[in-house]
Amino acid sequence: MQKHIVFLESNLTGSGYEAMAAARAAGHHVTFLTRDVNLYTAPGHEKLDPAWLDNVVTCDTNDPDSVVATVKNLDRPADALLAVGEWHMICAAEAGRALGLPGPSPDGVRAARDKSRTRQLCAEAGVPVPRFVRVTTPQEAHRTGLPHPCVVKPLDDAGSNGVRLCATHEESAAHVRTILADTHNERGQRKIPAALVEEYIDGPEVSVEILVYDGTPTVVALTWKELSSPPYFFETGHHVPADLDPESAERCARVATDSLRAVGFDMGVAHVELRLATDGPRLIEINCRPAGDRITYLVALATGVNLCEELVRMHVEPWTPPAITTRSAAAIAFLPAGPGEVRAVRGADRARLVEGVTDVSLYVNAGDHSRPQLNNTARHAHAIAVGPTGRQAHARAREALAELRVETSLEPHSGKAVRP
After folding, report:
1. Is-contact 408 342, C-beta < 8 A?
2. In a 3-state reduction of DSSP, which class is residue 48?
3. Mean pLDDT (the chain, rounded)
4. Cβ contacts of residue 320 below 8 Å, gap of 6+?
5. Residue 132: which residues within 8 A CB-CB, separation 6 or more?
6. 4-103: CATH topology
7. Could you count the other beta carbons within 10 Å of the beta carbon of residue 325?
């Protein structure tokens, strides 16, 4: 039976678009609420396809009351209100609750969005977390008692915005000052006026991709995350499944599911990030939405489970966990953006011929203006590949990117830049 599904904005890294496409493929009527639809057609990221949508409605998507009023005034009643991007998870949960629609507890979503609240609740529940201190002034960064280097980050940003490894008390204080001066995020929402100073866990990073329904989590996959070198933590690629022995994988899954119970996230898809310390996994953050960076697509290639399809399905019909199968490993690698006006893009045809490559997507064309990478969203392209193992798939994706060349007015930019 056709349902009416309303999407509240989207991220720019894949999963929001996948959810809209999944709703459309299932035969549902799809409405998109946004402040500015032009954001989704700008260069530098994947583009929104109007074919996924029946209706685009402009409203103040940062205001739950505005969203509620807009949904009530649509031509047909809504059966579900979904947000897939980080910025609008709280608003969607609050508006959905006010409309009497299925969705996660707003309290659980708020706890997940505030990294200091996440840390506090998880520590109280016995979930292993880095040592941390919430600070509201630069001076407090001198009195945390944490060893350096340490990580300083905003409480409620996303995409690795503002996350930095600081070597001294002075660096920590200076970065706290920078975070506090940045009062609004990229979607115009006021940020929590505080910062998190936390212990640096010097180990590999993985994420756990989880479906949650009626408070019960189902682990679908573990993702290995490739990161840039400190002091920043930009994500340069991912592969599924993560390269872990069964015992380590089970420990990661347990930490992730325990963390969701601790914060009270009870419905939807969760992307839980962990660092692997020498004594086991530590929780880094809970994202109460599907992973971006096309990780959802990698999971589908590797396990047969489409997380975005499941997210839509659990909001409009009785839901049971899907069957999880073992398929080829899958990986994605990104070409970080270089500065200047794009003069030429070459090599895409060669990149698509690399063994195992299933997708090469360019985010820019000649004439577009580009900026250097400041977070996870500033990129020129990606390549996706499959292989016998995650590492082999990732090597194929990087090989494909090495065929690309994006020339800008300031510097030529090659896919070889993504190599660690």
Report:
1. yes
2. coil
3. 94
4. none
5. 116, 119, 146, 196, 197, 198, 199
6. Rossmann fold (3.40.50)
7. 9
Secondary structure in 3-state letters for 341-404: EEEEEECHHHHCCCCCEEEEEECCCCCCEECCCCCCCCEEEEEEEEECCHHHHHHHHHHHHCCC
Which one-letter amino acid corresponds to residue 244? L
> Can you read off the two tokens belonging to residue 344?
């030429």
Which pTM does this prediction carry? 0.94
Q: Which of 3.30.470.20, 3.30.70.270, 3.30.720.210, 2.30.30.60 would CATH assign to domain 202-316?
A: 3.30.470.20
**pLDDT, tens only, 73-91:** 999 999 999 999 999 999 9
The pLDDT confidence band at residue 378, using thresholds 50, 70 and 90, is confident
Write down the domain spans for the chain: 4-103, 131-199, 202-316, 329-418
Query: Which among 251, 205, 180, 129 has a CA at the least distance from the CA of 120?
Result: 129
- In angstroms, the Cα distances linking 393 to 14, 182, 211, 404 are 19, 38, 25, 18
Mean pLDDT on 233-240: 93
Q: Which two tokens stand for residue 227?
A: 């990161």
Q: Each residue of 120-152: pLDDT tens digit?
A: 999 999 999 999 999 999 999 999 999 999 999
Instruction: Tell me the β-bridge partners of 344.
Output: 407
Q: Which amino acid is at 78?
A: A
CA dist 112 and 265 (Å) reads: 8
Spell out a b/e string for 217-243, using b for 16 or more CB atoms within 10 Å of the CB, else e.
bbbbbbbbbbbbeeeebbbbbbbbbbb
The domain defined by 131-199 folds into: Dna Ligase; domain 1 (3.30.1490)
Q: What is the H or E stretch that residue 56 is in?
A: strand 55-58
Query: For residues 10 and 333, what is the distance between their CA atoms, to the nearest angstrom?
Result: 22
- What CATH number belongs to 329-418? 3.90.600
**pLDDT tens digits for range 21-60:** 999 999 999 999 999 999 999 887 888 999 999 999 999 9
Task: For strands 379-387 and 357-362, give the pairing.
Answer: antiparallel
Beta bridge partner(s), residue 405? 346, 414
3-state SS record for 145-191: CCCCCEEEEECCCCCCCCCEEECCHHHHHHHHHHHHHCCECCCCCEC
Whether cis (ω within 30° of 0) applies to the bond prior to 412 is: no
